[in-house]
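Quick question: what would this complex look like in 3D?
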Amino acid sequence: MTLQQMFDPAAVAVVGASATEGKIGYEAMANAVEFDGPVYPVNPSGEGRLFGEAFVDSVTDIEDDVDLALCCVPGAATPEVIEECGAAGIGAAVIYAGGFAEAGEEGERLQEAVVAAADRHDVSLLGPNTSGFVVPERDLLCSFASGAEKLPAGNTAVIAQSGGVAHALAFQSRRQGRGVSAMVGLGNRANVGFTETIDYFDGDDRTDAIVLHVEGTDDGRGLLEACRASETPVVAYKVGQSDVGAFAESHTGALTGDHELYTAGFAQYGVPTVDATDDLLDAAAALADSPAPAGPNVGVVTAQAGPGIIISDRIQRGGGRLPELSSETQQRVDEILTGVTYTGNPVDTGRPMPAFGDVVTAVAEDDGVDIVLVYELYEQAMGFPVEALSGLAERVGKPILFSTDGIEEDMADDLSALADAGVPVFETPERAADAAAVLARYAGMAGPAAGQEVVADD
Amino acid sequence: MTLQQMFDPAAVAVVGASATEGKIGYEAMANAVEFDGPVYPVNPSGEGRLFGEAFVDSVTDIEDDVDLALCCVPGAATPEVIEECGAAGIGAAVIYAGGFAEAGEEGERLQEAVVAAADRHDVSLLGPNTSGFVVPERDLLCSFASGAEKLPAGNTAVIAQSGGVAHALAFQSRRQGRGVSAMVGLGNRANVGFTETIDYFDGDDRTDAIVLHVEGTDDGRGLLEACRASETPVVAYKVGQSDVGAFAESHTGALTGDHELYTAGFAQYGVPTVDATDDLLDAAAALADSPAPAGPNVGVVTAQAGPGIIISDRIQRGGGRLPELSSETQQRVDEILTGVTYTGNPVDTGRPMPAFGDVVTAVAEDDGVDIVLVYELYEQAMGFPVEALSGLAERVGKPILFSTDGIEEDMADDLSALADAGVPVFETPERAADAAAVLARYAGMAGPAAGQEVVADD
């Protein structure tokens, strides 16, 4: 089974497409027609056209090679639909309906019937009980949520156990001026789970980082092995530290499990963990848009002391180190900043200044520094040191993170110049520091200790 | 000493005003002239007018009643300027220059000289070593930072030990669609510190919440007493948990002190603490815009299960409780949501729906619920339950917090309708949950235990 047909299909069928606004079969079709390939509304009671596409009675009537079916039918009708899809040679299906494994014994039996049909024909299933997925680059909007068509393309693949969280992450990513290579809500994971999805996006050219939202899984081993096998960096957000078991189980049919066991397992298999949706996307941006960090040593350059203290504190709490700068670097910085406030690590220039970029460059070139974090309140007359930062990360082979606060519209041009230069930018001192700490932890993860088992299948 | 002359002056003098762009005396004047009262540029070498205002040679030459002087002169000239200000009857001054107590023994002596001059004439000093303050409502921009003129008026007073952090908080507040009643960077706190500033803003009609950024103070007792005496809710962000002592001391001349001692002290004196700038502003918004919570019991209503799990987990970790709903409420919710997913607490409606507002109302009316948190991914066809939420908090006498993720421009109208209805809105599920947890902790703080000393003067 490959997920090529799911995430990179030649043509798409919307089964249960409906002309009734508000129905999932309508919303799903409204989004699906944005696709850059053929889309077929399938419904034996459908008449004429829907969003310009002619209704067909059944997937077996389509002559085109359809790879992916979006199933907008009630749960009870799903096994038959999957059977038909399989017979028609469709290799992937999204099942939006709920009422399966998350909803008690009857639902479990229904889910088994769906999986049996899928297995007979080798159909990959996303869901049931998911709001679907989106691949912005191909305008492949297999979600019934509104706004999916406005999600920008980026280089982070979002893989979330919950469709709701998948969407929340994708919307947040857009607000942060980033984007996603794909946004996937796994739902009940009937036969496609974290393992298969991580494998697929590790091989996806558009994906430079993979983020996971994990509630719980009965295949912890498979999840961790897939993470370890991934050449693309993976960051995980494991939710559920307090007692939310009953509600969580009602959601995607899985207990949240032991939080510390997951965290330790992830760490051992090379996956830094974070504790919030925004941190997850920040970590992905830091990993996706930077050279791999060689170690946990962070050089901090700040134009204001107060945010510098916040940043230094959090980096150390998050597993990073703030090494002393080499004497050559200190000398260089002292030359640039004669008489200026604090030239240790962090270097505090007191306020933005024309030589700010030179200071950043000096710190970035220090052999004892693995990661650089720059903070500067925006000052209009000074702008950002775009020229100095442009290409610097590649030249020194180190991640260079940037963070600022200011008036958004005043900063817009400078921020987009930084974006064009490929510099990852973070919204608050804390979020920048947390992203740097993720890089530091990531650098310290040498892969799993041989023979040790942290998370057993349960 | 009252800070009326500082934060609500009749007229302002800019001492050391300069026509040279880039100088602090220029930037400060550029901002000061926005003030809704008279502003005088003071400089014996100044000629003609600056930003339309005629230069005067000395503060003693001004016939108007000037209350506030912005000192844009080098550190060494400051004692004399303060002496002159005092002689001219000016009761408040902002000192931007550095090189005082934060910069070793010589600086300490200089600061002592400034304080002695101020004390002779009862002049309140903000700084030295600060970027100043802003009162947006009066266009009183006593900061040399660019963008200060775009800070919107709001009902949270930001009091930060660091001028940089004060500005970062104010800019963040604007980005979040909020605003500040005042933004104050205390700097070295030569004779105005947390105590006096908290006192003043507690009595300020425009201020409904006070947020503190604290690095360290040698008057912990005074700080806590001022917090306890404040009828306006106070939230604190104490930075510096790891070893940042040397850098912090170089900043505003204070060690960061023992973090846990501060946290415990704040809790005992009725001040919830948070651990990030964005959390600080979220907590302020929750406290400022809501009826006071009567207890720690949070009722959660969510349209998507995944974010609901995140929220439930964090509320409990943050000190809130998720009580069972009363049987009446459960029955009411079951009637509204026949067959829908999870009607415990959280109530999960599965997706947005027309009856969503009715569910929120039912939970808000539950006697066992003290605080309500609502999360809903934005769905264009459905919008937000603005009508149901409008006035609900006041009617039930409980905080009602709202959080969403979606496409910003699609949500804009609905979000501004919520803002008009006075509903505090939060950007991510985690930030909403953390704000609810602050409310829960705040409700549990009954003031200090009699006779106990948590933070001694040190």
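Answer marked as accepted. Residues 151-288 of chain A form a domain with the Rossmann fold fold (CATH 3.40.50.261).
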